[in-house]
Amino acid sequence: MERPSLEINLPDTHEEGKLYVVDSLNNLNKLNVCPAGSQHALDEEEDPGDTRENTTGSNIRNQCLFFIIFILTLIVSLALVSFVIFLIIQTRNEMDQISSRLISEKKNIEELKKMNNLILKHLNLSGIKG
């Protein structure tokens, strides 16, 4: 008699297991259909669209920022090059002035040498020897 009772109990536990699985599936279905869960799912679906727009907007901002930095770099470079050219021109003018002074001083020194030689010749001719 014990065997027939075991056979009867096995289908009952199997039926209870089926009911447990069905209840679990129903609970999962309720969680998926829940308004809070659906709102969360909608939020997740909207995020990728927002990130695309944010990515596009950030790309445009990055390009504008790059363009502005590029323009500022060009302006600063142009100012530096202009300043260097100005310094070169000023240096050339100063060198020209120094060169002309040296040439005039060289002429003065040569004239003084000639005068010194003339004075020595005159002294030698006049017979004054020291």
TrEMBL record:
The keyword Cell wall biogenesis/degradation does not apply. InterPro entries: DUF4577. The chain crosses the membrane at residues 65-89. Pfam families: DUF4577. It comes from the Eukaryota. The keyword Transmembrane applies. Keywords: Membrane, Transmembrane, Transmembrane helix. This is LSME1 protein.
